[in-house]
């Protein structure tokens, strides 16, 4: 309630009474630093009533004082306001956007380092969220004794903008970045972070709420990298040299438009084809999904005339039938990957068409799906009679609302971020086992019976995947700033990044 003129006068009178026998500097102290003035007022002589009115006056002045300080910090570039998952901008001293000058200076110095040509490593984490796109890592055991042995930091360095994750093959990590007015597909030495090559093109997707830059994660396959930019530039690039082998401008060729928050569906390799989701079909062509020959780049088939969601396609088998799981803006769909034929469809429309989370295949005939924006989650069960599919909703609730993140499945339970709090659900019943720990709008992975959480502020936390209780083993500071990018693990090394920094940690036992 606004302070009346009478209250203001009484507050000023109270201060005058308190300070009338004190040096004039006392009033100055209140004006320069209200908390100190408030303390001095209460330890000085005076009635309780006058001190209460004086406190009210100081409180109102403090609001104006704080506003002025924040305004000055904002105007001088020290304080920033950004969207961090909620509809209200949050003040921060570490903005979630790249420092291009710092990045360019670092890469210039790095270019003087010798390039290691005999890189080696596996080809395990070559896809978005891992081999099965399910966020589970089982290549090797990892260190889970963080309370006694924290993961070793191998390297940390500035990077470009965007929300891509990493894929890793033969000792090289690949990601997409925004570098000024260009999108860049970049290859890094996994062990050192040394930049190996950059393949860039003109393009700058910009969006004020989520942030700028590409959203998709590249796909590695057979010595090639397949990358989709924020403005629908699609490229096949030689993984060793960075040379462009073929490309398509999906926006021009298929009259498609990127989604409002940016097309985020990562390319998917299916046998001899690469599958790409375009985003928003427009005009008379109206193509939501298109597949190309992975070697030549020639079109194989196209389909789905409706708007596509932000989630990436998943290749799986349900009831022994191989299929792609694809979210459109309005439905969850199973498609024949050879022809694009629709096998089944389940209605799933999230507020503002914001289906972002990945589907989680939990058995040969069940899939868990979830969404934020108040939507909730559901367990679907599939049955097949001849060629006719039936999709039954086993249960649905709002105990798990994956907003920007996706859940993982482990031993009959689903673990994920309900908005920004970690939750464990019993898969059979949908009942909540526990809900604890605030991690921001981050991302999670499953490894060695533990949940690795890349928190929304850039911290990394390790939580035991135990349905009976929430146990956070430890948390470490990894990178600074808003962090919505998915982490990746390969060769026992954890890769994390956001729009300004990237880092690599050794998870070896």
Task: Give the helices and strands, then pairings.
Layout: H1 5-19, H2 25-32, H3 34-43, H4 48-75, E1 80-82, E2 90-92, H5 100-110, E3 136-137, E4 152-158, E5 167-169, E6 172-179, E7 182-189, E8 195-202, E9 219-221, E10 224-228, E11 233-238, E12 244-249, H6 250-253, E13 256-257, E14 268-270, E15 273-277, E16 280-281, E17 289-293, E18 299-303, E19 314-318, E20 321-327, E21 331-335, E22 342-347, E23 360-363, E24 366-371, E25 376-385, E26 388-397, E27 408-410, E28 413-418, E29 421-426, E30 432-438, E31 443-447, E32 450-454, E33 459-464, E34 472-477, E35 488-490, E36 493-497, E37 501-506
Parallel strand pairs: 3-31
Antiparallel strand pairs: 1-2, 4-37, 5-6, 6-7, 7-8, 9-10, 10-11, 11-12, 13-16, 14-15, 15-17, 17-18, 19-20, 20-21, 21-22, 23-24, 24-25, 25-26, 27-28, 28-29, 29-30, 31-32, 32-33, 33-34, 35-36, 36-37
Helix pairs in contact: 1-4, 2-3, 3-4
- CATH architecture designation of the largest domain: 8 Propeller
Overall, the morphology is: globular
Structural class: mainly beta
CATH topology of the largest domain: Methanol Dehydrogenase, Chain A
CATH level 1 name of the largest domain: Mainly Beta
- Beta strands, count: 37
Largest sheet entry: 5 strands, mixed
How helix-rich are the residues, as a percent range? 10-25%
Quaternary arrangement of the chains shown?
Answer: single chain
Radius of gyration: 27 Å
- Beta strand %: 35-45%
Poorly predicted runs are none
In the CATH hierarchy, what is the superfamily of the largest domain? Quinoprotein alcohol dehydrogenase-like superfamily
Mean pLDDT: 91
